[in-house]
Amino acid sequence: MLNMKDVSKIYRTESVETHALREFSFDVDEGEFISVTGPSGSGKTTFLNIAGLLEEFSGGTYELDGCNVTNLNDRERSRLRNEKIGFIFQSFNLIPELDVFDNVDVPLRYRKFSSAERRKRIDRVIDLVGLGSRAHHLPSQLSGGQQQRVAIARALAGEPRFLLADEPTGNLDSQMAESVMELLEDINRNGTTIIMVTHEKNLAKRARRNIFMRDGCVSNNDSALHLAASSA
Amino acid sequence: MEIGPIWRAMSRNKTSYLLIAMQIAVTMAIMVNAFSIIQERSRMMARPSGVDEDNIFYLSSIGFLPEFDGRSASEEDLDALRRFPGVANAIMTNTVPLQGGGWSQGLRTEPGEEIESIGVAVYFVDEHGIDTFDVNLTQGRNFAPTEIMMFDPDANGARWPDKIIITQAMAEALFPDSPNDAIGRTVYIEDDLPITIIGVLQRMQAAWKEWSGVERAMLVPMKRKQNSFRYVIRAEPGYRDELMPQIEKMLAEKNTGRIIRGMTTMTETRERSYLEDSAMIKLLVFIVGVLTAITGLGIVGLASFSVARRSKQIGVRRALGATRPAILRYFMLENFLISSVGVVGGALLAVGLNVWMVHAFDLTPIAWYVIPTAMLILWLVGQLAVFGPARRATLVSPAVATRAV
Ligand SMILES: Nc1ncnc2c1ncn2[C@@H]1O[C@H](COP(=O)(O)OP(=O)(O)OP(=O)(O)O)[C@@H](O)[C@H]1O
Ligand SMILES: [Mg+2]
Asked: CA B111 → CA B108, B186, B187, B194, distances in Å?
């Protein structure tokens, strides 16, 4: 349902050209939980951004859910992001001046839901991440782990097909990381496809498939993790 | 739409928004009251004097030689003036509307000191007065040549003629119950001298624009014996400017026992008379313009700052599915809410300020439409000011969500 073929991404600044992705080919099936590892600068975030339609790519083809996204305009890309993709970021990226409820509401506001429908969805996902009693707290009044749960709730509220997570546990201590990881596994069990970039090998291992990136390419599917793990 | 969350977000970050809202409110209060002053002054300036301002000019003739004979000189002058090509008519009189200096008298409907008199501006004219000023006689008749009284202040004769023509405003002041039946009625001057009203003018202003009775005037058929007097001349349309030097020369040459001074048009007289008012209007327009510009720039500044500060948040919103128009709308709406708080506060402030000014300076209260108009203007200024920064916000890339720290 996510198919990239020979996708490349070149960043050009005045002096240098960076090939962040080189003929990157990759397929994801419905319901998978994929972890992406690799050294810093290997193109993990670039891949995620392109997969999530946050950035355009320089060459190749990308089909999302059977739809070729290469020539979509900004409005169509925004709509796909909103309806099919949920994002989870390393630094949570909650909107500081909105409470939990309003933060989860943000993506729903960009859709034509009735306010009753929005409320129903928000309550459901806030309960799902276990923050039902904190709906009117501000992000600054929550722990990091709780903030990330709100971000997950926000990503889930639109009932996306995909969750894209860029180091979702990167800013959390191991205990909070564990609970976030368990939440993600739960979500995956209920059918949502997840692609998660992480530096933590024990978390990466828990995914059903791991890809290891190096220099903008997939290094070699499953063996990579074991290589990385044994050298650690 | 998304007013709820925008409002809640702003209320958690009040200070800068409140400052701008306050600035909008103060600007609006000043704008509304300045406009109300401008309106009042303009209304005053727009009052017609009743005379043919475009074509009238006047001058003073001051006799200085001991043998100068004012009476015969003025008869000769007027004769020559009325014959002069391009002159429609001319009279000898004491003043003109808006001139600033004049003569006033009190009239009563009953004789006796104890009855309150009504002040009226006096114009001494002959039978050419109505035509020279080109005022509109709506009732009654003009003076006949035989009715013009020759008055010698040094002799012991009658001090006032027995007929006058008054303005409609004076008729209304004298006879509030039957202002249209003034013709033929008798009024009293200097306590108990009776005078009959023979005509009513539609309008003729007094020489004092600030006077509350500025439209109360009367024409008195009298030529006073004196050596210094004023001629009022009405030119045929289009001839005024070329006539003025010719007339000055003609009069000066005709009689060398006097000098000709103060040649002035009615147009200049009006300008000079309202100089302060038009300067005030310009100043207020300038102040309101500057204030509005400062407020607009303040909004641009706040919006630019808030777009820069929130670029990460904008990227996140884009990542979560906001289209560019949705981002634009967000900032426009945010500004609209700030402006709304500002203009509502401004409306209250404006009314308060106005109530005080009406009290303190005897101004008329603001017209109802001024406040909504000012609100609309400031809303518009806000939306225009925020548009640039909001446009810039739409250019923030969604990748900022994952990239920027
Ligand atoms: N906007 C940009 N302009 C220029 N170069 C960029 C830009 N974004 C990323 N790059 C470069 O592209 C390459 C891939 O970056 P990317 O962020 O995908 O790496 P990453 O694998 O996510 O690294 P990390 O683990 O440190 O997050 C890097 O060399 C980076 O410097
Ligand atoms: Mg990265």
From this structure: 7, 10, 8, 8
* Residues facing A156 on adjacent strands: none
The backbone torsions φ and ψ at residue B183, rounded to the nearest 5 degrees and listed phi first, read -60, 130
Q: Which of A188, A189, A144, A134 is nearest to A168 (CA)?
A: A144
As a whole number, mean pLDDT of residues B183-207 equals 92
Residue listed under structure tokens 């970050």: B13
Chain B residues with CB inside 8 Å of A137's CB? none
Nearest-5° angle of CA B265, CA B268, CA B271?
150
The residues, ordered by sequence, that sit 6+ positions from B153 with a Cβ below 8 Å of its Cβ are B224, B225, B226
> Residue B294 and residue A40: Cα distance in Å, rounded?
49
Write out pLDDT tens, residues B278-291: 999 999 999 999 99
Whether A106 and B5 lie within 8 Å, measured CB to CB: yes
CB contact under 8 A, A102 and B321: no
Is the pTM higher than 0.90? The answer reads no
Give Cα separations from B173 to B168, B182, B212 (angstroms). Answer: 9, 11, 12
> Alpha helix (H) ranges present in B86-142?
129-133
Q: Which two tokens stand for residue B84?
A: 């002069």
CA distance B134 to A190: 97
In ligand 1, the atom with minimum distance to the C-alpha of A9 is 12
Strand A67-68 relative to strand A85-88, pairing: unpaired
User: What is the CA A18 to chain-centroid distance, rounded?
Assistant: 23
Q: Average of pLDDT values for B259-281?
A: 93
B131 touches B201 (CB < 8 A): no
- Is the Cβ–Cβ distance between A45 and A81 less than 8 Å? no
Distance in Å, CA B271 to ligand 2 centroid: 75
Distances, alpha carbon B195 to alpha carbons A138, B117, B165, in Å: 88, 14, 10
DSSP H or E stretch at residue B163:
strand B163-167
In contact, A38 and A219? CB cutoff 8 Å: yes
Q: Which ligand has the minimum distance to the alpha carbon of residue A46?
A: 1
Atom of ligand 1 nearest to the CA of A213: 21
The β-bridge partners of A11 are A18
CB A171 within 8 A of CB A92: yes
Residue B44: C-alpha distances to residues A19, B54, B169, B218, B371 (Å) = 76, 18, 16, 21, 22
Q: Is the ipTM of this complex over 0.90?
A: yes
Q: Residue B70: pLDDT above 70?
A: yes
Nearest-by-Cβ selection for B320 from A102, A107, A166: A107
Confidence band of B1 (pLDDT split at 50, 70, 90): low
Question: Residues in chain A with pLDDT < 50?
Answer: 223-224, 226-232
Say if CB B404 and CB B311 are below 8 A apart.
yes
CB contact under 8 A, A54 and B326: no
Q: Structural domains in chain A?
A: 2-226 (3.40.50.300)
pLDDT, tens only, B22-69: 999 999 999 998 998 898 889 889 999 999 999 999 999 998 888 888
How far is B27 from chain A, CA to nearest CA, in Å?
29
Per residue in A60-94, pLDDT (tens digit) is 999 998 889 988 999 999 999 999 999 999 999 99
> pLDDT for B320-354, tens place per residue?
999 999 999 999 999 999 999 999 999 999 999 88
